[in-house]
Design a protein that fits this description.
Blueprint lengths: L3 H30 L1 E2 L1 H18 L14 E4 L5 H10 L40 H14 L2 H4 L15 E6 L6 H12 L5 E7 L2 E2 L2 E2 H4 L5 H7 L3 E6 L3 H12 L6 E6 L7 H4 L7 E2 L4 H14 L1
Parallel strand pairs: 2-3, 3-4, 4-8, 7-8
Antiparallel strand pairs: 1-9, 5-6
Bound molecules: thiamine diphosphate and magnesium ion (MG).
Magnesium ion binds next to strand 5.
C-alpha cells in the first residue's frame, strides 16, 4: 500500500514535470515569434503548474462550466504563460501553440477573453484583475453560487463554491485600483478570492525597487485585511503548502505572495539584461530547451 508520504512525493514530482512542460511550451511559443515575455512565463511556470494541475477545479472540455474556479490573468502580457498552462491542462491543444501570435490564431500576444478558451478576462490594462475578481465574487455570492453553480452533478468534485483567483504582477501593486479592490474584498469578507502576486522584482522600466517601491508587501496586504502568505514561487512544495494554507483560512480574502526569478530554469535567459521583453536569437532557442531539460533531469 502507498503511504501518504509516497503519495505526496508522487504528487510533487508530477507537478515538477508539469512545470517543466509549461516552460517547454513557453519556449516553443517564444520561438514562433522570436521574442516575447518569455522570462515571465518561465518565472511563473511553477505557480501555474500548482494552480492548474493541483488546485483549480475545471473541466478541460467545458471551459465555461458554471462550477469552475475562475483564474483571472490581469497581466495581459503574461498570456504566453497562461497558454502554456492551458495546454498542459488540456484546455487547448499543445499543437495549437504553434499558432501563437499569428493572424487568425486563438492565441494573441496579449490575453483576450473572447479569443481563447480558459482566458477569463482581457488583461493588459494593468491593475484591473482584482477589481474584476471582486465583482465576480460578489456576483457569485448574490446568485447563491454554492447552491447553483458549484455542484458537479456528473462528477465527483466536492460541492464547494467556486473560487476566484487573480494572478497579478508586482507592477500591479503600483496601481491604486488594486488596493481599492483589496479593501472591497476584505470589507465583504470574500474568502473565495485568492490573489497570487508574482513578485519577480521587475517592471518594464527596470527593477520594481527603483520604479516604485512595493515592500513590505506582506504587511500591506495584512493591513488591508487579507490573510497573506509569502513563499518561494519557484518551489513547488512551498507553493502547494501555501495554497493549502490559504484554502484552510476562512472569513477573509487571501493572497499568496510568490517570489520568482525571471527566466527561471534557463540560465541563458535568467541572466538577460533586457528581461521584460526578450529577443532571443534563432540559434538560442534550442540551447534554451537543452538547458531547461538539463536542469530538470538534474
Ligand atoms: C495601466 C497600465 N499602465 C502601464 C502599462 C504599460 N506596461 C505594460 S507591462 C508594464 C510593466 C508592469 O510591471 P510588471 O507587470 O511587474 O512587469 P514584468 O514583471 O512583466 O516586467 C507596464 C508599465 C499597462 N499595460 N497598463
Ligand atoms: Mg514584475
Amino acid at each position: 500500500m502507498t503511504s501518504t508520504t509516497d503519495q505526496r512525493t508522487d504528487r510533487l514530482a508530477a507537478l515538477r514535470h508539469s512545470a517543466y512542460r509549461i516552460r517547454r511550451n513557453a519556449l516553443d511559443m517564444g520561438e514562433v515569434q522570436g521574442q516575447g515575455y518569455v522570462g515571465q512565463a518561465l518565472g511563473v511556470a511553477d505557480i501555474l503548474a500548482v494552480a492548474y494541475m493541483d488546485q483549480l477545479r475545471y473541466r478541460p472540455d467545458d471551459p465555461h462550466w458554471e462550477g469552475r474556479d475562475r483564474f483571472l490573468l490581469s497581466i495581459g502580457h503574461y498570456a504566453i504563460a497562461l497558454y502554456a498552462a492551458l495546454a498542459e491542462a488540456g484546455i487547448i491543444p499543445v499543437a495549437e501553440l504553434q499558432t501563437y501570435g499569428s493572424d487568425g490564431s486563438r492565441l494573441p500576444m496579449s490575453g483576450m477573453a473572447s479569443y481563447t478558451p480558459g482566458m477569463e478576462i482581457s488583461g493588459g490594462s494593468l491593475g484591473h484583475g482584482l477589481t474584476v475578481a471582486t465583482g465576480m465574487a460578489l456576483g457569485l455570492r448574490y446568485r447563491g453560487n454554492d447552491a447553483q453553480g458549484s455542484v458537479d452533478p456528473g462528477g465527483d468534485d466536492p460541492p464547494a463554491p467556486p473560487r476566484i483567483y487573480n494572478l497579478l504582477s508586482d507592477g500591479e501593486l503600483n496601481e491604486g485600483s488594486t488596493w481599492e479592490a483589496a479593501q472591497v474584498c476584505a470589507h465583504y469578507g470574500l474568502d473565495n478570492v485568492t490573489a497570487i502576486v508574482d513578485v519577480n522584482a521587475l517592471q518594464a522600466d527596470g527593477p520594481t525597487a527603483d520604479v516604485l517601491r512595493t515592500e513590505p508587501i506582506t504587511d500591506k496586504w495584512q493591513a488591508f485585511g487579507w490573510y497573506a502568505v509569502r513563499v518561494d514561487g519557484n518551489d513547488i512544495e512551498a507553493l502547494v503548502a501555501g495554497f493549502e494554507e490559504l484554502r484552510a483560512h476562512p472569513g477573509s480574502p487571501s493572497v499568496l505572495i510568490c517570489d520568482t526569478r525571471v527566466g527561471r530554469g534557463v540560465p541563458l535567459l535568467e541572466t538577460r539584461e533586457k528581461a521584460h521583453f526578450m529577443r532571443v536569437d534563432a540559434d538560442e532557442w534550442q540551447i534554451a530547451r537543452d538547458q531547461l531539460e538539463e536542469g530538470f533531469r538534474g
